[in-house]
Each structure stands twice: as C-alpha cells, then as structure tokens.
Write a structure and sequence with these properties.
Structural class: alpha+beta
Radius of gyration: 23 Å
Number of helices: 5
Largest sheet: 7 strands, mixed
Order of helices and strands: HHEEEHEEEEHH
Strand content: 35-45%
Length: 179
C-alpha cells in the first residue's frame, strides 16, 4: 500500500520533489529564491551612434515584481542615464578621440531587518575607445522594497542595519578603511 505521505505527494502533484530529502531544503529554497530573482529583472539596452565620437552602450534593468512592472522606478533609472548621456553627448561633439558611455548592472537579493530588498548596482563609465581605458567611473545603487514595490532610502536601510548611531559607525568604518 501507499503511505499517507505518498498519497499526499501524488494528490498534490508534488512528484517532482520525491527525489529530495529534508537535508535538501536549503538548496531548494536557494534555487527557488534565485528563480524568483531572475524573473524580476530584464535587460533594457539603449544604443546611440549619432555622434561617432561619443556613442552609448547602456544596459539598464527593467524591474518587475510578481509579474508587475515597476514602471515609475524603471522610468526614473532610464531617464537618469539617458539624460546624462544626452548632456555629455552635446559637450563631446568636438573631441578628437572616440568615447563610449557604458552602463552595466548587477542585482542582489537582500534581507534587511524584516524586508526583502532588491539592490541594483549600476556601473557607469566613459571609455576612451582608442586606448581602451576608462576615463570616468561611477557606481549608483537603487534599493527596492519588494513587498511595497518602492525605492528605499539608504539611510533607512543603515538605520535598520546599524541602529540610531549608524552615521558614526559608518564614518568610523570609512576612516579605518581609508587610513
């Protein structure tokens, strides 16, 4: 005869899990978390070669949570970088070398306090195409509370992580790192 657990697994259509044991729980949870995270961000690529001396190769995230696009956040991110590129493009019309404005990003799934936060780190740089070296480097981070589907201020995250003295703690940590 079939055990109670066996009947439950077949009735609930959980047959795909029958090869797993209790010890596999962490691995399965991590796999599920990664699958959810991958579903949250798609690439949006923007290129511009109108000015041959200053081109764009912009790769930005297009974030969704549970199938719902976070349009206001996506627009904010896209506008920030396209406006920055456009302003630089007008300044770079007479340069002798050719440059490329590049952005790439990575995202990290974090638990901070009781909140699940998606942190997106966007690496912006200007590359001298002739030499292949980076002339300007900047990193920006956007933190999104996945439950509320809104941006989270970094100071709010620091407060949760380090307490009310977060400014002093962070200042000292930076001093120790730099000195």
């Amino acid at each position: 005869g079939m055990t109670v657990i066996g009947r439950y697994i077949s009735k609930m259509k959980l047959v795909q899990y029958k090869k797993y044991r209790w010890k596999d729980t962490e691995e399965l949870n991590e796999k599920y978390r990664q699958e959810q995270l991958e579903a949250l961000s798609k690439d949006e690529e923007i290129t511009d070669e109108a000015n041959k001396n200053f081109t764009a190769n912009i790769k930005l995230p297009k974030v969704s949570v549970m199938g719902e696009e976070l349009a206001s956040i996506n627009i904010e991110i896209k506008e920030k970088f396209t406006k920055l590129f456009d302003s630089l493009k007008s300044e770079m019309t007479d340069v002798k070398n050719s440059f490329t404005f590049k952005t790439t990003y990575k995202y990290y799934d974090n638990i901070i306090g009781d909140k699940r936060i998606l942190s997106i780190t966007i690496h912006q740089r200007i590359v001298d195409d002739k030499v292949g070296s980076t002339t300007t480097d900047k990193i920006l981070t956007y933190n999104i509370d996945l439950a509320k589907k809104e941006l989270v201020d970094e100071s709010d995250m620091a407060l949760v992580m380090f307490g009310k003295d977060y400014k002093t703690i962070m200042k000292n940590a930076i001093k120790n790192y730099v000195v």
